[in-house]
Write a structure and sequence with these properties.
By secondary structure, the chain is α/β, with parallel strands linked by helices. Helices cover 64% and strands 15% of the residues. The longest helix is centred in the middle third of the chain and has 37 residues.
Length: 321
């Protein structure tokens, strides 16, 4: 028979083993069970989430931040799939972030990868919706569909071009164009020859014109790049601004009075000049008459001297006797 001491030892062993097992389980599962999460929702419209299971990894820029808590159909819209995420508490999920379903290797399983988000945008509150994005595979698949459609259009066009009837039409049109071109060149052969003969001279004239144009542009650039011109314009602008400031500082009433006084003085001076000119007119006329008489005598004297130069030596009196 089993003694009481043996029973006690068995009971103590079982209690001790249970405590050790509980401690081991708590050490492994405790941090996960006691960890607090923020919950977010993703809404996928007409998009398959096959391979995305509950417990799948949630990453933010490749860093694991949580897990997929639940995947279900929207109760009011069967075209929408709702995904509930459990993310580590206080993880900054931005309002402009996108949740994309990515493939986990070649296993067929998928996970949620959150991308995007800028520092200037506010964080999403727990319980909010994260905007859904398109994965790289889906993007490539969409582009592949577009490429296939374009390839199909090209093939249809090739089939249309290779149609025998269309080939005949193309050959007929080509022959017609060639015959028209031959007819044109045969009728304008002389004109084409003259043009070809004058082509070198035209090229020389064009080259000369381009050289002159280049020199003109170079001179224009030199004028534009001349700092003296900009300095002169700057000085003119500064001078005009200073003049305007001075004009604003001057008393307009006093300026008008000074200008009126200047005009009156100018009118008086002009009047006095007219009077002086009127008074001296007679004297001026007499002086002109005397000057005219003197010039007549001088002309007569010059004429006599030119005819008889000896008069300068002998004198006019002896010749008279």
């Amino acid at each position: 028979m089993v003694s009481n001491s043996q029973k006690i030892r068995v009971i103590l062993f079982l209690i001790f083993s249970g405590i050790v097992l509980a401690a081991f389980l708590f050490a492994i599962l405790g941090p996960t069970l006691l960890k607090e999460y923020d919950y977010y929702y993703i809404e996928y419209q007409d998009q398959s989430v096959g391979g995305l299971e509950v417990g799948a990894v949630v990453k933010y820029h490749g860093v694991k931040i949580g897990r997929v808590e639940d995947v279900y159909i929207h109760p009011e819209n069967v075209t929408k799939v709702m995904v509930k995420l459990a993310v580590k508490e206080n993880t900054p999920i931005k309002r402009d972030a996108l949740a994309v379903v990515e493939n986990l290797g070649i296993t067929g399983l998928k996970y949620i990868n959150i991308t995007g988000g800028s520092m200037l945008v506010e964080n999403l509150a727990s319980g909010s919706k994260i905007a859904s994005g398109i994965s790289t595979v889906e993007n490539i698949s969409g582009k592949a569909d577009v490429i296939l459609q374009k390839v199909e259009i090209v093939l249809n066009n090739l089939l249309t071009i290779t149609n025998p009837n269309i080939e005949k039409n193309i050959l007929n049109n080509t022959n017609f164009l060639i015959s028209q071109a031959n007819h044109f060149f045969s009728q304008n052969q002389e004109s084409i020859k003259k043009f070809v003969q004058h082509l070198p001279s035209l090229t020389i004239h064009l080259d000369t014109s381009l050289i002159k144009l280049d020199k003109l542009l170079l001179a224009s650039n030199q004028i534009v790049e001349n700092k003296e011109i900009f300095r002169m314009l700057d000085n003119m602008q500064k001078g005009s601004s200073i003049f305007l400031k001075k004009m604003e500082e001057v008393d307009n009433t006093q300026l008008v009075a000074d200008l009126s006084s200047l005009i009156r003085n100018s009118n008086n001076a002009i009047g006095h000049f007219d009077q002086t000119l009127l008074y001296s007119r007679d004297n001026l006329l007499k002086a002109l008459e005397n000057l005219e008489t003197t010039l007549d005598h001088l002309a007569e004297f010059t004429k006599v001297i030119s005819e008889k130069p000896s008069l300068l030596i002998r004198g006019r009196s002896e010749d008279v006797r």
